[in-house]
Amino acid sequence: MPAQPFAFRLDATDGRARTGAISTPRGQIRTPAFMPVGTAATVKAMLPESVRATGADILLGNTYHLMLRPTAERIDRLGGLHRFMNWDRPILTDSGGFQVMSLGALRKLDADGVTFKSHIDGSKHRLTPERSMEIQRLLGSDIVMCFDECPALPADRDRIAASMRLSMDWAARSRDAFGDRPGHALFGIQQGGLEEDLRAESAERLRSIGFEGYAVGGLAVGEGQEAMFDVLDYAPEQLPADKPRYLMGVGKPDDIVGAVKRGIDMMDCVLPSRSGRTGQAFTRRGVINIRNARHVDDPRPLDEECGCPACRGYSRAYLHHVSRSKEIIGSMLMTWHNLQYYQDLMADMRAAIAEERFEVWERDFHALRAAGDVEPV
Ligand SMILES: [Zn+2]
């Protein structure tokens, strides 16, 4: 593999929105970027080449799931996660922290790390910053996330402050444990809930440690869009302007547009793939439920402007039939469409930012959604 370093280049800004590219030895990531989620070494219902065909430059993998099954050591013996899942482009892995925290009563937190029981078989495991770095190295991840702790919101200020400071100690330990790995990146994660001064303190600690990129963490955990945007009005600018900024676990299309508008470069979410499997489609005219009776005789495509196989080759009536019948092709087509919609959205935003017409583009985006779905046949 060529020894190309990890680097971030900004090509244009429009307001606070930015477009550019991250270069890695495994290829370029155009920003703003949406990362489909490949939880268990697969983006469910999709072949890796199909995910690539939608325009995705990078996938996200989950440390928590992969460490339990099939285990990081097994993936390493089989040549790493890229080889294992047949995706040769960049992969970002989360640290496992967020999912372990979501286990509730199944986990026990101390200053050194977290002990938890597997949701699969109840076996006992432990994650520390050092172990999370080791697992993400065994997986062969291109972008590694610091191990952190994230309280669910609402939480009181003392709890959020203590949690943030623990995460910053863990960020320093993650940096030390990551070591010197040319071509690979370690991202720090800002915490601090909805408190601007705690976010500033967190950003300062992360900047003093120094990372190849920075995530805004601790959002999309139940605070609502308005509170999230309030934080995004200041949080990205507390982080270095010359490094990628990643908003973790977001979101719906209008969340993504609002985040890009506020200076975010990378996002991930299970929503397009998960929704596809339950019959929900994201379109330029908003969300539609293909299982709804209004589509049963409709010969038109899901989205007239979409070039994906589901829209080019199949009617709403067919998608309605296979989705209601729970045929596997229903999940495949609906997932493909949703991932295509998300990648088209990112491509549209990149072009609008590059041409300094983001504001007009955003107005049209909201207007078409407000107009709603096409009239029933
Ligand atoms: Zn489509």
TrEMBL record:
One of its GO terms (molecular function) is metal ion binding. Substrate binds at residues 94-98, 148, 191, 218. InterPro entries: ArchSynthase1/Queuine_TRR (IPR050076), TGT (IPR004803), TGT-like_sf (IPR036511), tRNA_ribo_trans-like (IPR002616). Its EC number is 2.4.2.29. Gene3D superfamilies: Queuine tRNA-ribosyltransferase-like (3.20.20.105). GO terms for cellular component: cytosol. It is an enzyme of class 2 (transferase). It comes from Jannaschia seosinensis. This is Queuine tRNA-ribosyltransferase. The gene is tgt. Residues 249-255 are annotated as: RNA binding. Belongs to the queuine tRNA-ribosyltransferase family. One of its GO terms (biological process) is tRNA queuosine(34) biosynthetic process.
